[in-house]
Write a structure and sequence with these properties.
The protein is built from two helices and no strands. It is mostly loops. This is CCHC-type domain-containing protein.
Amino acid sequence: MSGIPCPHAISCITFKGLDLESYVDDCYKKEAYLRCYREVIHLVNSPELWERTQYDDVIPPPYRRPSHRPVKKRKRGPVDEDNRNQIHLSWRGQVQRCSNCGGVGHKKSGCTKPKKMVCVMLF
């Protein structure tokens, strides 16, 4: 429908050894492009005929290889805070409470009090 064959059709056409360009609509060919933009695109002189200026040539900056592993995840901005997953709840702003002694400000792994003994009765 678009005038360009799909990848499956392209593989079948090339497998049979047929000319692929005969299956493409004329509006996608180079001649149609040149006819369309003939009035807008003008030829450019070769670099030997360009006017020289007093400024140095523009060169790209030197490539600096990063010294660390590249980051896989993108950095989130302030706009992304609203689009966060609503299922996950953040622990930010919550008070840490020890499950061993019930104290505030540390977890069970950092508790200095002896660990509670849990008795399990098997019947």
